[in-house]
Amino acid sequence: MPADRPRFGLIVTLEDFWVANTFMHRDWYAPHDDESSIVVSAEELEHLVLLPAADITAKLTKLTTSAEVKGWHVGALMDGSDRRNPVIDSAWKALPWHAAFDAEQQHRSAGE
What is the mean pLDDT of the chain? Predict the structure, then answer.
């Protein structure tokens, strides 16, 4: 990796652990201030990868260096992004019960 590029350690969890980046827990896994690392949930990572690379870098840099937001979780800086992840959507549609699920949703919607 070129030395002029920022590096971040991402600790990805399946559970949302909202306080993981706060001062209460930070020393457990990131005792050195010169290391940029942050805990993210799998869901936050799924949404983070939808952003342009420059936006990802800016958001992670802000979360690891700005006193204003240090300790926040990644989702807090996602600006209400509701874009769908096409990889996740494609995987969901490949599941055998997807058609039955869609039919049930349409049936329920029609009944309202």
Answer: 77
* The total number of residues written for the chain in this structure: 112
41 and 16 in contact (C-beta within 8 Å)?
yes
- Per-residue CA distances from 93 to 48, 89, 98 (Å): 21, 6, 6
Q: Which helix (H) or strand (E) holds 94?
A: helix 86-94
Specify the residue for token string 């005792």.
31
**Token pair recorded at residue 80:** 């209400």
Closest Cα partner for 74 from 106, 92, 50?
Answer: 50
- Model's pTM, two decimal places? 0.60
- Condensed to tens digits (0 to 9), the pLDDT of residues 52-99 reads 888 888 888 887 777 777 777 777 777 656 677 888 888 888 888 888
